[in-house]
Structures are given as structure tokens and as C-alpha cells.
Design brief:
2 copies of one chain form a homodimer. The first copy, chain A, is of the alpha/beta class and 357 residues long. The first copy, chain A, is built from 10 helices and 17 strands. Chain A has helices spanning 19-35, 50-58, 69-77, 92-101, 114-124, 149-161, 179-195, 233-237, 269-272, 326-330; strands spanning 14-18, 39-40, 64-66, 82-88, 106-111, 131-137, 165-172, 202-206, 222-224, 248-259, 262-265, 284-285, 292-296, 301-304, 318-322, 335-339, 345-349. In chain A, the strands form 2 sheets. In chain A, strands 1, 10, 11, 12, 13, 14, 15, 16 and 17 form a 9-stranded mixed sheet that branches. An 8-stranded parallel sheet of chain A has the order 2-9-8-7-6-5-4-3. Chains A and B meet through helix 4, helix 5, strand 10 and helix 9 of A and helix 4, helix 5, strand 10 and helix 9 of B.
């Protein structure tokens, strides 16, 4: 990546995304999943751009994953035909929006309790289309999800009997490095269903970290990954990608050099976020790899240059930052800049940004 | 604060602001500054709402503080007449916007280096109005700012001689609990200027933490504070306010109860942010004060209920969260809900949100 392609009229702080790297990242993940016979259903929470969702589908994905109804509404409106919302949908207003959304695309949601299933069923019992539902399984992440294979199979039967709903299978967001346990949990749930003559069409696994070993969850039929399209510092540090695979960079201006070993950049926590992702510091400075972004105030990044050698940055210089976590950064910007291979810069509204509802 | 005032059609996660508490917080700070003869120039980075900026001025503030030109443009457009931007303005595009902005309000900026001053001077030498400039002083925060009183006075003289600029005084964002050192730094800079026959009109101090002792910086003529209007968990924990002084709460829905001691709410790091502010956990749950928001994923808040006694939350319940840091939360929402004393809910666009440039 090279900031010489950033025209003068584009002000910092801004997000610049290298489209060639995006394409490479999409291709690599799709090839891996193709090789193992697993379908791809990328999570759009990372990019929030219909343009990239279409690109993922053109590369071979069967559909997309969203976390919010608002994201799914934007994506369906942009012509995406197959959407999984991996979130318990709770509350009258949201359920009504879900019912409307189901008329515009092939829609699947998840549930991890009878209460959530009852809300879905009451909403879809009188709807024109049935709603597909996956049972969310907690395979160790300790987030949402039923706790055992037996509970998963029990809830599957409950969904199967619920008016307006169609039981479609299981979904998990797995903890890292736990393929064997995840597979056992899901495999057992599938077997329990099959012994009840309940068909399981989908077993949906997810995550970008350690994705290259996700085929070890051998009962999975599809994989959801989000961050892989951009990658970030956390994935470089975990060995899941190289710096050259990072498509998203924050461009920031050096606004102060108060001391020889300190620079201040115009990217703080309202740009890079305070998400540590288990790392020290808040991003990798491409031009000064030994620099440490040691502290963020809201609009100031405080950078320690004491380990840098050679020419140091001057006030007015633009530096590129690979953030710790790409997904939360693109969530802060109303628009991002796509840089194409020929140097052309394209502005994209982050259409799903702010779709918190 | 009570969630019974939230109408059904308002979906979670959302930000609800209690206007009575806002008014009390504004009044208390203004009374304190009036008592000590210090002028008030609130920082709007916390609320980003023209409505509240006007309310702060009606209560007695002489003007406002912004961190970004974009924020100042929105506020000037909304009729705010006196704006200080406490940020080094660097780069051709921003300087041209600053020149246009100076035609619409009384505008002051800061600078901490000759390079920054030169950029301002080149821009304003041919402008219809002079630009007021304060020298930013690093009194221990280790962010921007000149390092000594002597450097401050030297830069003051440089500004005074620069075409198009008017030296107006000094500005600092002080570290906590360091009033004596801050006052010494600024007082010495003022004296050096006065011995050079250079008039110092403004000494601008800032910050909400420990604001009730800021009169100890006795040479300050004005005070900038932002967070005081909403307050937050960090200020409760530091003893600067009480929970009843917190005007901003995130309303979130319980979407899962996977185990007896865990609930999942629909407010994650894309709502509460990962900003720890030196605390453990990511917010205070009003209805369950012993609950611990132990981990945030992007759209999930993972809450440990093991220390709670009595009735525990159910799926579908709405809880109110006082976030660690109010300023970064309102930055994530396109609109917030103001709750008036009579229960009326008013929707406000967060007009300065996304004004990162």
C-alpha cells in the first residue's frame, strides 16, 4: 500500500481500501472452502458495503450473513437474495420488520431458546412464507447458544413443530483452536435429529481466525467469515495473514511533534477505536514499523517513536495505520475510499453503517 | 432514569438522554465557574448536538469548543457565534475550510509549532479577517503542546509577528490532579509575554475530571469541559459525580439467557465501545448493579449475573447501561432520544457525528 495514490483533496483521517487485496482475500478463502466442499456465506459486518457483498457472491458465496435486521434490509434492497441473520430477533417492532424482510429474500435466522422461537412463530404463523431457523449452539465461546447437543436437538424439534417456521439446522460461532470439540457438539446434535427423523440441511460454522483449519469441523456445510476480506493487525499477529494481506488502512496526518520521540496523529479512538484485541498498542504504522501507538484520546493518536531509526516523520506527513480490528473501524465512517489497481479512487458510502437496529 | 418512559416503537440498542439531568449538569458547572470568575466554553465533542450547545450558551457559556473543523462548520451553521477549535489545523484543504469558516463566526484555533503557525498565516494573510491563535501547552498530559513556558512565549511572539494572525493567549488540556504545576507553567508563560509587552487575553484550561478544583489554576480565564453534560461511569468511579448525575444511558434488550449466570444484551462494542477508561467491565447496568458486563463482541454484550441477587432478567427485558465513556458512545449513533421531564421523547440527529474531517 502506498499513500502516494491518495489525492490532495481527500482529507485525513480516512479509510482507504485496496481493492486488489480485497479480491485476493476473497479468492483465497473461496478456493479453500471450495477445496473442502464447504459453502461460503461471508459476514458483511466487516465491510458493510453492498458492492463487496456482490463481489463475494460472484466469487462463489451462496449468500451473506448479517448481524442486524437493518444491515439485512440494506443488503436485500441492494439485490442480495440469500441472507442469514445470526442473531436472536426479539421484540415486536423487529419481528414485524423481519416478516416484511422475508418477502424480499431467502431469509434464515437463529434462535437459542423457546422464548425466541415463540416470538418468531407468532409472527410467521400468518405470513405468506415460512421462516428458516437454525439453532444457535454455544460450542465454547460463552456467548449465545444452547449449552448441549441434547438441548440443540430438543429446540430443533420445538422449531419443527412451531407454525410458520422451518427447522433448517445448526449454527455456531466457535472459540479459537477447538475444532474437535465443536465438531463433536454439532455432529452429536445432527445425529440426535436424524434419529428423530428430523432433517438437518445446514450446519453453519464461522470465524476468520484459524479459518484455514475450519475443515476440521467436518460436519459443517457452510462457513461464515467476516474480517478475512480486509484482515487487520490482530490477524497478522495471530499468524492468520501477512501485512501485505491487509486491505484496509487508516490514513492519518502528523499534526504535532512535541518531542523528538513523540508524534501526534489525527486518528484517535473515534477512528481506530480502543479495541485492543489482546495486543499492545492500537495499530501498525506502515511507514514506521517500530513506532508504537501507545495511547488514544478521542481525536489524537499518541505515537512513541523512540524505537524508530532513520528519518522521522514531520508535521504534515501522512502515515498509514493498519488497525487492530478492521470491523469496528469501518463502522465509524460514513464513507470509505476504494483504491483500484490503476490508482483510481472510488468513494463508497458505508451503506450499513449506523444500522444498529 | 426509568425505561418505562421508552415507547414500544423505539428499538434497542439506543441512546436515551435525560434532559432534566442535562440541565442540572450544565447549571452546576456554570455556577461553579461563575463563582470563581472563570468563563465557560464547553466542548461539544460529547453531545455533538446544536440544541445542547445553544442550551450551554443560554446558561452563560461565552462560546463552544470543537475538536474538528467539521464539527465547527455544523455548529456555526446552527448559529453558534464563538468557536474555539483546540486542534492543530494542518493541510491545504482544511486550511481553506478554516478560512471560509472564519467568515461565519468568531473563530480561534491553537498551534504548538512554527510549522502549524506558518500554514495558518499563509492562509489568513490575504483573508478579510484575522485569525485568533492560542499556543497549546503540554502541562503534563504528553499529548500536543510546547514543552516549556519559554517555548510558549517564543511561539506567542512568532504568532504575533505572523501576517493574518492575532496572538490571543494559551491553552492546555491538563493531566489530572496537577493544578499547581499547570498554573506555574501557564503563569510563567503569561509573565514572559507581558515582559515582552505582548498582551495575553485568554488562558484556556479544560477537562471534566476534577473540574471542581480547576479554580486552583488561578491564571485561567476560561474552562473547557465536555463530558460533564452527560457524565458517565468513569466519572462516577472517580468520585466526580453520582449515578443520578448520569444523563446518558444505552437501552439494550436481553436477547439470550444461555445459562443461569449469563445474559446477552444487544449492545456490544459497536454501541458501548471497547474504551475501558481504566475500569473493569464495560458499563453499569442500572437495574442489576451487581451485574458485570465482562466482555463485548461487536453486537453482543456478555453479562455475568453471578453476583446478582433476587429476580434475574428475562429474554425481552430492557436494561439501561451507563457506559464507561459517554463521548465515544454518542459518536456511534446517527440519532439519540431526549427524554423530557413530562415523559415526552424527542428524536435528535447527532448533527456532528461522522464529522471526522
Amino acid at each position: 500500500m502506498n499513500s502516494r495514490y491518495l489525492p490532495d483533496h481527500i482529507e485525513t483521517p480516512c479509510v482507504v481500501i485496496d481493492v486488489d487485496i480485497v479480491d485476493r482475500n476473497i479468492r483465497r478463502a473461496q478456493d479453500y472452502l471450495d477445496e473442502h466442499g464447504v459453502m461460503s456465506r461471508p459476514h458483511i459486518k466487516t465491510h458493510k458495503l453492498p458492492k463487496f457483498a456482490h463481489r463475494q457472491i460472484e466469487a462463489g458465496a451462496i449468500g451473506i450473513t448479517c448481524q442486524k435486521i437493518g444491515e439485512a434490509e440494506v443488503m436485500a434492497d441492494a439485490g442480495i437474495g440469500d441472507i442469514l441473520i445470526t442473531y436472536n430477533i426479539v421484540g415486536t417492532a423487529k419481528l414485524q420488520r423481519l416478516r416484511r424482510l422475508a418477502q424480499t429474500c431467502r431469509l434464515t435466522v437463529v434462535a437459542d431458546s423457546e422464548q425466541v422461537v415463540r416470538g418468531l412463530s407468532e409472527t410467521f404463523a400468518t405470513a405468506a412464507v415460512e421462516l428458516s431457523v437454525l439453532v444457535e449452539c454455544d460450542t465454547g465461546q460463552q456467548r449465545c447458544g444452547v449449552q448441549t447437543s441434547e438441548q440443540a436437538a430438543h429446540l430443533a424439534t420445538f422449531i419443527d413443530a412451531a407454525p410458520g417456521l422451518l427447522f433448517d439446522g445448526f449454527m455456531t460461532y466457535p472459540p479459537k483452536k477447538s475444532h474437535e470439540r465443536v465438531n463433536q457438539f454439532l455432529q452429536r446434535a445432527v445425529e440426535l435429529c436424524e434419529s428423530n427423523k428430523l432433517e438437518v440441511n445446514t450446519v453453519s460454522n464461522g470465524g476468520t481466525p484459524d479459518m484455514q483449519n475450519s475443515h476440521l469441523v467436518s460436519c459443517a456445510t457452510e462457513h461464515r467469515s467476516g474480517t478475512y476480506i480486509y484482515n487487520d493487525r490482530s490477524l497478522v499477529e495471530s499468524g492468520d495473514c501477512k501485512l501485505a494481506d491487509c486491505a484496509l488502512a487508516v490514513h492519518a496526518t502528523v499534526v504535532s511533534r512535541p518531542t523528538d520521540d513523540r508524534m501526534i496523529i489525527d486518528a484517535g479512538s473515534k477512528v481506530l477505536t480502543s479495541d485492543p484485541m489482546g495486543l499492545t498498542g492500537f495499530g501498525h504504522v506502515v511507514e514506521y514499523p517500530k513506532a508504537a501507538i501507545r495511547e488514544l484520546h478521542e481525536e489524537h493518536g499518541i505515537v512513541d517513536l523512540s524505537n524508530c531509526v532513520g528519518t522521522l516523520p514531520n508535521i504534515g506527513d501522512i502515515v498509514q495505520i493498519i488497525p487492530n480490528h478492521a470491523c469496528v473501524v469501518s463502522n465509524l465512517f460514513d464513507r470509505v475510499f476504494l483504491r483500484h489497481g490503476d490508482g483510481r479512487i472510488e468513494i463508497q458510502d458505508v451503506a450499513c453503517r449506523g444500522q444498529v437496529w
